[in-house]
Design brief:
The protein has 344 residues and is an alpha/beta fold. The protein has a single domain, classed as L-arginine/glycine Amidinotransferase, Chain A (5-stranded Propeller), CATH 3.75.10. 28% of the residues lie in helices and 23% in strands. It contains ten helices and 18 strands. The strands form six sheets. It has a four-stranded mixed beta sheet with strand order 3-2-1-18. It has a three-stranded mixed beta sheet with strand order 4-5-6, with helices on one face. A hairpin with a 2-residue loop joins strand 10 and strand 11. Helix 1 packs across helix 2.
Length: 344
């Protein structure tokens, strides 16, 4: 049986894609080059960083920015055309076979059932397999059709438990797999990820372009710890309501029995751009080898969230990455990264 390793297990590399699609960051694409260079600088001190570049011009810009940040080792630039840079969702998910070897599970990508330009991103899985030489398998639904899923929609403890949301997978908005039921998803998770138990949360955070990805609201931080984005302020009515519901679901799923501890992460104050509420959340952190990078928002809650995450990941260095501009693209650190687990 396959096993979906926890994010904190040893990595062979982190994969990112250099920003180039200006409509994702209207008016801020130039700033994104320097944000990505800083992300790569921090990651490269802990593990190899594999970077996809849309074309030669993008690759040269990446080289220039990385050099300016002093990043000259532990990075590789690959010429791979992409539509967008959110590799958490377009890249394959690394799973472990019973013998400890690695396999890439490739989900069918359809741009969150929202955008029309995804033909290049749909080829990312094949390109990662080509570059790494790792075997790749295309996941299918119980009816044999390709299974549409994104890495941001799933989070695991590495021991057979998965966090997902009903809003993302079961609602009638941005439908990934028409006709698939809760039971169908659980059978697919068992087959492709070795999942024995799925915890269904309700809704994601306000402003989430993906319509409910779990990686903005709830993350395993250890086998027995879940970090939950929780809005305490009733004035932020929608996130407050969703937070309360998700906490109840986690408690009912085992938190009350002591199966795991639920730690409330605050939300930053609302981040607004051109009148649009953006999905700013500390839960969108990324765990690398001995490192956790956490999005920060020039907010008083930054320090609270960083301290909470540092307490849980006591053996990791915890680094805040300024994400006020980054989240204008409707995603932050977890959304743009994808781990390649180390073969055993």
């Amino acid at each position: 049986m396959r096993r979906f390793p926890a994010e904190w297990e040893a990595h062979a590399a982190t994969w990112i894609s250099w920003p180039h699609h200006e409509p994702d960051w209207p008016g801020k694409i130039e700033a994104m080059h320097w944000v990505y260079a800083e992300i790569a600088r921090v990651l490269a001190a802990h593990e190899p960083v594999q970077i996809l570049c849309h074309d030669e011009a993008v690759r040269e810009r990446a080289r220039t920015c990385l050099a300016a940040h002093g990043v000259r080792q532990n990075v590789a630039l690959h010429l791979v055309p992409t539509d967008r840079v959110w590799l958490r969702d377009s890249a394959p998910t690394t799973v472990m076979r019973p013998d400890g070897s690695i396999e890439l599970v490739n989900w069918r990508f359809n741009a969150w059932a929202k955008y029309e330009n995804f033909a290049l991103d749909r080829q990312v899985g094949a390109e990662v397999a080509r570059i790494t030489g790792l075997p790749r398998v295309d996941a299918t639904r119980p009816d044999g059709q390709p299974l549409v899923l994104e890495g941001g929609a799933i989070d695991t403890d590495g021991r057979g438990t998965l966090l997902v949301t009903e809003e993302c997978l079961l609602s009638d908005v941005q439908v990934r797999n028409p006709g698939m039921t809760r039971a169908d998803y659980e059978r697919a998770f068992a087959e492709w990820l070795g999942i024995r138990r799925t915890i269904w949360l309700g809704e994601g955070c306000v402003g989430d372009d993906t319509h409910g990805h779990v990686d903005d609201i709830a993350r395993f931080a250890a086998h027995d710890v879940v970090l939950l984005a929780y809005e305490e302020d009733p004035a932020d009515e929608e996130n407050h309501r969703r937070s309360k519901d998700n906490l109840k679901r986690l408690q009912a799923a085992g938190g009350k029995r002591g199966d795991y501890t639920v730690i409330k992460l605050p939300y930053p104050r609302p981040v607004i751009m051109n009148g649009e509420r953006l999905p700013a959340s500390y839960a969108n952190f990324y765990v690398a080898n001995g490192l956790v990078i956490v999005p920060t928002f020039n907010d008083p809650h930054d320090r609270v969230a960083l301290n909470q995450i540092a307490e849980v990941f006591a053996d990791h260095q915890v680094v805040g990455i300024h994400a006020v501009d980054l989240v204008w693209g409707l995603g932050t650190l977890h959304c743009l990264t994808q781990q390649q687990i180390l073969e055993r």
